Amino acid sequence: MSGFNKENNPEKTLDLFNKMKNDGIQANVVIYLCLIKALSRIGDYSISISIIKQMPDSFFHDNQIQTALIDMWGKIGYMDKAKEIFEKNLQTDQAMHNSMIHGYGLNGKSVEAIQHYHRLPKDFIDEITNISVLNACSHSGLIDEACSIFQSIRNKTETIYSAMIDCFSRGSFFEEAQKLIDEYEHSHPPSVSMYMALLSGARNEKNIHLSKIVYNRMKKIFPAEQNALIPAAVLLANVYGSLGENNKASEIRIQLEKLRSKHKKRVGLAWASVNGQVFKFRAHDESHPRANEIYAEAEKISEEIVKHGHIYDSSWVTRPLNPDETIASVLCGHSERLAIAWCFLENPNAKRIHVAKNLRICGDCHRATKLIAAIRECEIIVRDAHRIHHFYTNGQCSCNDYF
Ligand SMILES: [Zn+2]
Ligand SMILES: [Zn+2]
């Protein structure tokens, strides 16, 4: 089970659990820890409930299980359930506090994250606590709060610096971000993640001048680190694309394809479930038995959103198009779009859909999903690599487009 989890196959962990049950094998705490991890990856409320119900009562008193459950409910988007477990527990430990703060941050409840942080005794705060609270501030643009927390941290590690730089960059405080990078580099070698934070801030603002400076600087400082230069080049191409400079953007994308063929690509994966069945979609997946119908449904959704004013945003296409592709067909093939189409195909009157994703949601999928939730009158909850997006039926997202 642990192997399946590590390989991004949480649905197989659940299958194995069902097989165990059929074979009459009793599950112990370790197995439930694996299951809870798989459930937090899949991100579906009803499947999680049905598995947790089967857990023997005595396991609920186990510290590791409690922490794992708090973490899981936070990741699925149910902080009230996480809080319930947390408050029932008289002997809370560091890991539980960290899971609470992290969960608040994921769900955009930064004020709660900060309050929880300030209530903690000093010896309960470690590097993870600090990073979680800074990320929570960062996702909601609470820069003053982040600054004062950052100042109070004695042992500032590379990751803590990066979190603060990310916070400044997301808020477009680029000078402050640069100052912190300088301060850090005074006594340390340069860090890739700090430059990536600065670059994605510049991308969000469509600031081509700064994007170019940062990208060129990265090429100079980290010439051998292709794993960092590839995503950096994607961001730079995004900026050109969003400014309509498509020639420059495709020039970079062609160079990128060459680089990528030598490196492992990170594939977009999305999990969704219908009637207790979990399915994992890859981008442009055709492996589902109802693939043809899923693509037809995706097409139908696409027509609906276009009718409601959606314009496909080519800046989120990160590779050259194949001859049989269009901007729309590439974007509609993103894993979360297919997962959403499948949910509507199986259940046209769905009122709530859960999708979990391994990468960050792209700007086009974010705009499209807001419209889909409104048109189909269905709440859609997407957890991506950074946070949870609640798309409400009024066409708004809980992140207020700050992601
Ligand atoms: Zn997308
Ligand atoms: Zn959002």
From TrEMBL:
<dbReference type="InterPro" id="IPR032867">
    <property type="entry name" value="DYW_dom"/>
</dbReference>
<dbReference type="Pfam" id="PF13812">
    <property type="entry name" value="PPR_3"/>
</dbReference>
<dbReference type="InterPro" id="IPR002885">
    <property type="entry name" value="PPR_rpt"/>
</dbReference>
<protein>
    <recommendedName>
        <fullName>DYW domain-containing protein</fullName>
    </recommendedName>
</protein>
<dbReference type="GO" id="GO:0008270">
    <property type="term" value="F:zinc ion binding"/>
</dbReference>
<feature type="domain" description="DYW">
    <location>
        <begin position="309"/>
        <end position="403"/>
    </location>
</feature>
<dbReference type="GO" id="GO:0003723">
    <property type="term" value="F:RNA binding"/>
</dbReference>
<dbReference type="Pfam" id="PF01535">
    <property type="entry name" value="PPR"/>
</dbReference>
<dbReference type="Pfam" id="PF14432">
    <property type="entry name" value="DYW_deaminase"/>
</dbReference>
<dbReference type="GO" id="GO:0009451">
    <property type="term" value="P:RNA modification"/>
</dbReference>
<dbReference type="InterPro" id="IPR011990">
    <property type="entry name" value="TPR-like_helical_dom_sf"/>
</dbReference>
<dbReference type="InterPro" id="IPR046960">
    <property type="entry name" value="PPR_At4g14850-like_plant"/>
</dbReference>
